[in-house]
Amino acid sequence: MTTPHEGLTHLKTYDVKDSNVELIGSDLDHKVKYKSASTEPAWNNGTIGKVDGLFVWRIEDFQVVPWPRQRVGDFYEGDSYIVLRSYKVGQQEELSHDIFFWLGSKTSQDEAGTAAYKTVELDEFLKGAATQHRELQAQPSSDFLRLFPRITILSGGVRSGFTHVEAKKPESVLRLFRVVKAPQGQTPSGRTATMVYEVEPTWKSLDEDDVFIIDQGEKIWVWQGRKCSPIEKAKAAEVVHDMTLEKKIDTEVLAQTDSRSHLIIEQLGGDVNTPPITTSQTPHPTSATSALASDSALRRPRRLYRLSDASGQLLFDLVRNGNEIQRSDLDGNDVFLLDTGLHIWVWQGSQASKAEKSMWIKVGQAYVRSLEDQQVEAQAHLTPLATVKQGKEPAAFWKDLEAK
């Protein structure tokens, strides 16, 4: 494998004296951003930054729009969202914050860009006290999964500058949902989190490993694959209960092994010639995460890199490998990237230059691209990516840094 910084050679030509970025990260830059943040209605409701809890916004036409409380945990694949978790640690008076900008698999570039920009703005509003996370629908981090007892991924989204998909569907439209146990997600109460995916309403979407809910409008069917777990059956029952809570709808549960299970296949366009339903050829999005987490042999080697402009150019170099990584390797004058194999953290030293700090997400993205270009890992771009500031590190960062 080539040395890490060779995959990021464009960073070496970066001139920190470039007038276009001279003020990024400066006191003036922070004041300008804070002034902008202080006028954003979404942050200025008298609650954000003052009260602990979970807050969610969706990006709609470049605006940050509060997401209804009753819909927290629902995400449209065509949209981008900002999620704020504010909490207290121990007896501390000040709140700690995690900001996640979640990008749906079909979100537009304008929505994704707005979510990323507004995440930085929210951090400014919180006086730079937050840990920022980039979350992708295809491979959510365990930190994100633990925020919700259930996450539902729906097809569609809101109108944006470049795409238009309808968020609402007529009651009469057949809808099919796959219910699975989140592989790394456990809620604060210790319960297992649930993932619900809206999938194409065809028999080809069925598999023997999961539970599916077919919503016909006037009736709900539940398909239990022959290899689904008891937990998934129980979770599907909870989902159906919530779906029928406000209206009386006939519900029927059929196991794949039941003689009447062909009724569900027929509802989804199948017939007597439909081949047997087996393991899905398109596993649910968290399968890669689950497999990687369960087999340490599949992980990329743990590595720590330094981002520094001490030489006058922005350089990215390997500091230490594997179990040799320790806290003393971090230097408050620079920015460091920690790759655990399952998660990428960018640590910003308190005395790092404005250029170093401003480049965190570009460096993170360039790094995962280099892993793919060098064929280290084909899906490296799906790795959860977060940035933390010196003195504001969450416990999860130290746990990952000191893991042996």
UniProtKB/TrEMBL annotation:
<dbReference type="GO" id="GO:0051016">
    <property type="term" value="P:barbed-end actin filament capping"/>
</dbReference>
<dbReference type="InterPro" id="IPR007123">
    <property type="entry name" value="Gelsolin-like_dom"/>
</dbReference>
<dbReference type="Pfam" id="PF00626">
    <property type="entry name" value="Gelsolin"/>
</dbReference>
<feature type="domain" description="Gelsolin-like">
    <location>
        <begin position="64"/>
        <end position="144"/>
    </location>
</feature>
<feature type="compositionally biased region" description="Polar residues">
    <location>
        <begin position="275"/>
        <end position="284"/>
    </location>
</feature>
<dbReference type="GO" id="GO:0051015">
    <property type="term" value="F:actin filament binding"/>
</dbReference>
<protein>
    <submittedName>
        <fullName>Actin depolymerizing protein</fullName>
    </submittedName>
</protein>
<dbReference type="InterPro" id="IPR029006">
    <property type="entry name" value="ADF-H/Gelsolin-like_dom_sf"/>
</dbReference>
<dbReference type="GO" id="GO:0015629">
    <property type="term" value="C:actin cytoskeleton"/>
</dbReference>
<dbReference type="GO" id="GO:0051014">
    <property type="term" value="P:actin filament severing"/>
</dbReference>
<feature type="domain" description="Gelsolin-like">
    <location>
        <begin position="195"/>
        <end position="245"/>
    </location>
</feature>
<feature type="region of interest" description="Disordered">
    <location>
        <begin position="272"/>
        <end position="295"/>
    </location>
</feature>
<dbReference type="InterPro" id="IPR007122">
    <property type="entry name" value="Villin/Gelsolin"/>
</dbReference>
<dbReference type="GO" id="GO:0005737">
    <property type="term" value="C:cytoplasm"/>
</dbReference>
<dbReference type="GO" id="GO:0008154">
    <property type="term" value="P:actin polymerization or depolymerization"/>
</dbReference>
<feature type="domain" description="Gelsolin-like">
    <location>
        <begin position="327"/>
        <end position="398"/>
    </location>
</feature>
<feature type="compositionally biased region" description="Low complexity">
    <location>
        <begin position="285"/>
        <end position="295"/>
    </location>
</feature>
<dbReference type="GO" id="GO:0005546">
    <property type="term" value="F:phosphatidylinositol-4,5-bisphosphate binding"/>
</dbReference>
